[in-house]
Amino acid sequence: MSEEHYLELCENPVQFENASSVNNVFFDEANKQVFAVRSGGATGVVVKGPDDKSSVAFRMDDKGEVKCIKFSIGNKILAVQRTPKSVDFISFIPDYPHLECSQECKTRNASILGFCWTNWNEIVFITDQGIEFYQVLPDKRSLKLLKSQSVNVNWYMYCPETAVILLSTTAQGNVLQPFAFKSGTMSKMPKFEIELPVVPKPAKLNLSERDIAVATIYGQLYVMYLKHHSRTTDSPCAEVVLYQLHREGSCKKTNVLKLNTTGKFALNVVDNLVVVHHQSSQTSLIFDIKLREPDCALNVHQPVLPARSIHPYRIPLTGPAAVPSQPPVPCELYSSSWSVFQPDIIISASEGYLWYLQVKLPPTVNLLQDKGKLLDFLLRRRDCKMVILSVCAQMLNGEDKGSLPVVATVFDKLNQVYKEYLEVEQTYTVAMESGPSRGSTARERPVRTQAVIDQSDMYTHVLSSFSEKKDTSHKFIIAVLMEYIRSLNQVQITVQHYLYELVIKMLVQHNLFYMLHQFLQYHVLSDSKPLACLLLSLESTYPPAHQLSLDMLKRLSTANDEIVEVLLSRQQVLGALRFIRSVGGHDNISARKFLDAARQTADQMLFYTIFRFFEQRNLRLRGSPSFNPGEHCEEHVVYFKQVFGEQALMKQVTV
């Protein structure tokens, strides 16, 4: 089924002249550039990269067959190897255009196996007798040797992300010596040994570079070894063994990926997943080293998903022979002409395409039935938010409806990630407010990944529509809403009022007032002003909601104005006055607001009482019972005189 293809080739590949029309095709892993080289007279070179800036075409003198060709970072300097002894350099810097120089390796009788740019002007020669680290000086048309190291080398591998070169040493090639490069320095890292499979004597097995890959997974550098035969005869299947490299400290064997088959394999790393391509079955497997099988020994991994092929890819016909109506030609997947590079690149030199391998998350949802494991898998992926929200919606609806314990597990996993992000964000905010401390490095604002699913996301994409489902039991809906609230409380995240509103509306809709009362009484629903206002609006449906609202506002202690407004709107004017006196705010309240409310009750004695209270307040505060013009109480003074007579007004006390 096409919807089950969870791997695909990118839609916009890098196109270059295929191998049939050029002499040689080279790939530079550091710049992700393909060099198509055509000899004859002058050597024509077409460089294609991931964008237009990194693409260029030029000609250079034909000085022999090109064995290796690479640009330094930013296309500043071109290095070309034509002989085993030297490398030629051509400047592409605008200030020093086309200045050329050549550098022979310093070690006598050594042959250059290849070279790696570690900076725009720093390069490493790897010879069969060691490595030589140079600085290129284009203005002086020369190179300066920074450092060298002698060691017998069989082959090498370079990881551009970390600027680490791996050298294969010893007769069997299984002792690997890493070197790290940074800003003009070369550091020798601890060497380590790859455990080769046991073979019957006198046969010897040598480590081939075809079985080694170097890549960064979850921010850590790993050497991946494709072990074709297990030591034990009862388990002849291949496996991938991961060794974690540390700049300091020994390299350790950390993970084993069980392939459960034999044959020819190739490795990629996509979105922190190890992808193993199997040529004979034309399928791929994916492994997540952070997912651990409960029935496996520590760090032994089975594939996360069943083996599937890469999604079929069709190559559009181009050129003068192309007919508009002619359908695209299917690409031969898992072709023997494919070359795989780290971390996620597949090149077909015969067809002239460079693809980036991509993981499609939606098909994984139906292939991984365990919702907890599925969430663990999705939360570590790059573009996971909408897929996770669709999993949550699917879990609450239709045939795939999960049980409450499953729902609880999913909510807990989401909210743990949410909480961790909030804590990091809070730490950053506090650090910014307190200012930089002495000797501390500048803090970077934490990046909010797509794995952070907050309350707004859940409400908008899942819970709001779920609560309106007519074909779902209201008890299940309430239980799910309360489960989400429980999960938030468990990790001490303040629950937003709109989630409580969903619960309350569901309870009222189904006349579950006893449950509502209990939720409020035992503070299952936390106090908030919006929630108190919602309760007030329910008074006509459920009269006790009014008192529940007032009690909530009193507990908040910052909602005195709201309580006064509520009481006045219910014409409980004396109650409002008593309340504001109990909290000591009666000297600052608006006299007009209370007199307006008292007039609206049509209770003359109540109006008299309220009017007299404010006269006494005026006398106490200002020495006069009269109202100030700014209080706008003139109409109430006129009304008081009409009803009770002018003599009823308080007289100013004269001393």
UniProtKB/TrEMBL annotation:
Coiled-coil ranges per UniProt? none
**Which GO BP annotation is one of this protein's?**
regulation of autophagy
Q: Which GO terms describe its cellular component?
A: late endosome membrane; lysosomal membrane; Mon1-Ccz1 complex
Looking at the record, the residues that make up the Mic1 domain are: 381-628
Domain Regulator of MON1-CCZ1 complex N-terminal as annotated: residue spans = 25-143
**Superkingdom of the source?**
Eukaryota
By what name is this protein known? Mic1 domain-containing protein
**What organism does the UniProt record list as the source?**
Coregonus suidteri
Q: What is the lineage of its organism?
A: Eukaryota, Metazoa, Chordata, Craniata, Vertebrata
